Amino acid sequence: MNLKPVRTRFAPSPTGRMHIGNARSALYPFLLARRTGGTFILRIEDTDQKRYSPTAEAELIEGLGWLGIHHDEGPDIGGPFGPYRQSERRAIYHEYAWKLVDLGHAFPCFCTPARLEKVRQEQMKNKQNPRYDGTCRGLELGEARRRVDAGEKYVIRFRMPKEGSITATDLLRGEIVTDNSALDDSVLLKSDGLPTYHLAAMLDDHLMEITHVIRGSEWLPSMPLHVHIIRAFGWDEPEFVHLSVFLKPSGKGKLSKRDTDQAMKDGYSIFLGDMQDLGYTPEGVLNWIALMGWGVPEDDLLTLDDMIARFDIHHLTPSPAAINFAKLDHFNGAHIRSFRTEDLAARLKPYFLRENLAVDDATLLKIVPLIRERLVTLDDCLPFAAWFFRETVEPKPEELVAKGLTASQSADAARKSLEVLAGLPEITPQTAEPPMRALVERLSLSPNQVFGILRVAVTGQTVSPPLFESMEIVGKEKVLERVTRAIVMLEKM
RNA sequence: GCCCCCAUCGUCUAGUGGACCAGGACGCAGCCCUUUCAAGGCUAAAACUGGAGUUCGAAUCUCCAUGGGGGCACCA
Questions:
Q1: Stated in angstroms, how far is A196 CA from B41 C1'?
Q2: Which positions of chain B lie under 7 Å from any protein Cβ?
Q3: Above 60 in pLDDT, residue A169?
Q4: Where would I find the beta strands (DSSP E) of A248-363?
Q5: A476 with A426: CB under 8 angstroms?
Q6: Dihedral (C-alpha) A65, A71, A76, A79: value to the nearest 10 degrees?
Q7: Are A229 and A188 in contact (CB under 8 A)?
Q8: Furthest C-alpha separation in chain A
Q9: Which of A185, A241, A268, A418 might form a disulfide with A325, Cβ 3.0–4.6 angstroms?
Q10: pTM to 2 decimals?
Q11: Other C-beta atoms within 10 Å of A127: how many?
Q12: How sure is the predictor about A299, in pLDDT bands with cuts at 50, 70 and 90?
């Protein structure tokens, strides 16, 4: 792999919520930049004032920060190639668009949207390809300038050659040859003075000295146009890499609103903003999205640093990938298991606080090792451990009855257990487990039965962290109190 | 309608003409461990879309078909 420092960029348009597709489009260029000791840039492509969403940019930056994908230059931190927000680069686009006119590669166009729409309808009706009909293409430049100066509304279109073909190269797919006759006189500068993506992105990538353009495959069909624009200026084009799209879990089609709604019902989401609430970690999410479209040999449990060390653009795959939430869960759980106790405790704490539980750090630190390997998402700490932070537990009477025993038999087992536990100086796995096992033996019952009764009595639930470890944390006094109460409940049944 | 891209287990993928009766991971099933739930260990089932060609030899190269995806805006 060529390790010359690259300059890459993530160039989202702030129009909606940040999702895993965006995240991956940021991840790969980031990895390439870090891998080569290069530079990763954030550029905001806000040239569509109709679709602009003021909260989107903040969400984008927040999402990147959460994942640990930090940019070296961007609208929030500046840099030598700014501004990094396209709406602030108006003058540049204007200048270069007219430069292209002067070079003969573009022309001003005065056609009204209404007329163009009519032409398009006509063409569709005649089963022709919808495209610009060339009305202003032959306009004399002096005349065109006069009309512009007179204040007439205009756009600037690229003057696409009528003949010949163009060869564009995608790093993952190789050379793609396109007949120019299949290409259109696309608009470069809109009548509001702002550029279209085609002009803005090519210009900025050149001006910001981007060496590798890594973007979604929805841009593949317009790559020939982009290469035309770049060459019209006399520049060399960067390396292009078009990432495959994410498909819905079934693999049939891309994700729709309906699919994302369904995912949310199942406790999943593709939006970064939701994923944190759902208990996903940046490590898990990153690992998940990184491996959709990147074939990493051997171990696939990767941290960001692992990814940087192994990233190779040639191992990206061009085919679409169906998302698989089960795999997200796997990676999330695996990363959680790898966290140090203090780290995991700190990450879990907000989820307890969210439920208004009185978490104290010392207790939390003791709980973490007990629940660590049981967590798939961070908020799974609640069903396992929320009860530790409540004054009392509320066992269901029927759950106190052990399998295969009656209520009074269960009460009896509980009474005998209470005697054993009460006789201990303190309850720890070391002190309590041997005598309790001996008791089980003496009663000719199974550990499952007796420990089950105690589990429900002490934790209030049938599923919990290991029993004796939990008892140690809760403390002898509360354990005896709760077992006593359970006996009363059983006797009343 | 036209243009472009893609195609290996259910899913993500390894594989760049012989080392492939196709490897890994997730999921699924079974077993082991086990006080619940997990985690962990072991085992199993599971794929080269189809057809022509090139070649001594093809998952790998070519063509066609099929399927899937994307695009054809004064949106990105």
A1: 58
A2: 1-8, 10-16, 24-27, 34-40, 68-76
A3: yes
A4: 321-322
A5: yes
A6: 170
A7: yes
A8: 107
A9: A268
A10: 0.94
A11: 6
A12: low
